Amino acid sequence: xxxxxxxxxxxxxxxxxxxxxxxxxxxxxxxxxxxxxxxxxxxxxxxxxxxxxxxxxxxxxxxxxxxxxxxxxxxxxxxxxxxxxxxxxxxxxxxxxxxxxxxxxxxxxxxxxxxxxxxxxxxxxxxxxxxxxxxxxxxxxxxxxxxxxxxxxxxxxxxxxxxxxxxxxxxxxxxxxxxxxxxxxxxxxxxxxxxxxxxxxxxxxxxxxxxxxxxxxxxxxxxxxxxx
Length: 228
Known about the structure:
Helix content: 55-70%
Oligomer: single chain
Mean pLDDT: 84
Low-confidence stretches: 1-6
Distance between the termini: 45 Å
Strand content: 5-15%
């Protein structure tokens, strides 16, 4: 039987804020949370936030990046190795989601929605998809940071509860968020979710068109002020 090491207070605090960031983002963006824990498991994972269901691709990307956003806001640059470790899984997940978002979108736009799995996988690693995926992740990273800053009270409250209890059920996450932020409202209008995602995608496509017209290899970043 594999022994599970007891995390240090610093590691436990880092994990609590990381998972609190995910939990707050999922719930704020209209995706219910099934459970969240900072109890270590035999695989070496410090914690996990489990959404009850999958949501819009872009909102999943923002929520995936919100864990590291919360960690950065609270813990800063105190430990470069820990910072890199905290970022790793979030960015892998965000990159995966972003690549498949653009793969499906581009296949749909070219009438190839029924392409073979091999074609889809090949396209997901193409330069065209990766370029757009990188821009989307960068834009969503900014949105995740802003989301965490605006929800700081709820993130603090969730992290504190996780440090005390080790895990929270979905209904406890909801109760803590609403109790810590007066007038809190979720973003769960399906039409607005779709329109906000389209606005972000259009911004990225326009940035790429401008870059191509200028003949520059430098990608134009998405402008500030976008929201989801």
